Amino acid sequence: MSKEKIIKKRKSDKIEKLGKSIIQHGKLNDRVILLSLNPEDDNYEIIAEIENLAEENSYSKIICLIRTDDLPDFILSGYKVEAYVPKFFDGKTDCIMVSKFLTEQRAKTPRKQLGLFSDLLEITEVEDNYEKLQNFRMESLNESHADEIAKILQQTFASYPFPIETENILKGIQENRLFYFGIWDGDRIVGLSGAEINHKEKHAEVTDFAVLPEYRGKRFAFHLLKFTEENLKQKNIKTAYAIARLSELGMNKTLLNASYKYSGTLVNNTHIAGQIESMNIYYKHLN
Fold first, then answer.
1. Alpha helical stretches, state H, 209-248
2. Does pLDDT of 237 surpass 70?
3. Superfamily assignment of 111-285 in CATH?
4. pTM exceeds 0.85, yes or no
5. Which one of 5, 45, 61, 287 is CB 3.0 to 4.6 Å from 31, fit for a cystine?
6. Residue 6 has pLDDT above 80, yes or no
7. What is the mean pLDDT of residues 77-96?
């Protein structure tokens, strides 16, 4: 069975409004995530509702992206800080990622993976000398490339935490929310990266790094990351952040080489590449 078919059989978690706040939940990631906490909503009411939702569906984790001012209410409700991104909101206010684990298994610390990652942090240095990519070209992608973007992502990942079908990618591009960048070998896209931009808050997630197997080992991810950053600067984005698999030391090294700061690990957080994995958080201020 192809990886593409595996992805299409998995039902993506759904995004819904809770009051004026936004959540995502479902069995794929087996969690509730509070994506946006609206200041007009009562914190304790939102906490109660997401916990009821988690109990009703037997989810094993809740994670919330909140402002620093909201942190005391969540600590009092039993949540623990896992990661943070400084100046996440409009280049001013920090984002705190707080979690509550609802089963012992979900809360289990990936000790071996964290040990290997700790070793990586000790030896990895920022690369100041950036040489341009030779023999390939990098370009911004557009709506006409949506189908090819989807195919490359589906070839790369056995599962993904958000929908990566053509229609979802096309919709994001049309909404001026998703932006993609590609490395070309002749008339063929052989590597790509993406950015999901929040124009109001002036932050962007650098994401969707995928390189065809026969082109790996050429540091395409590093070049794509640099190219993505330059495009984000032109769009007046102040903070870039990334979510990297703890188990994939290569991508973590790429981010560290490019001056991204590690700021925490979301333990057993995301269904990607066929299983629930822990994810590292990185950030970089662009302006």
1. 220-234
2. yes
3. Gcn5-related N-acetyltransferase (GNAT) (3.40.630.30)
4. yes
5. 61
6. no
7. 97
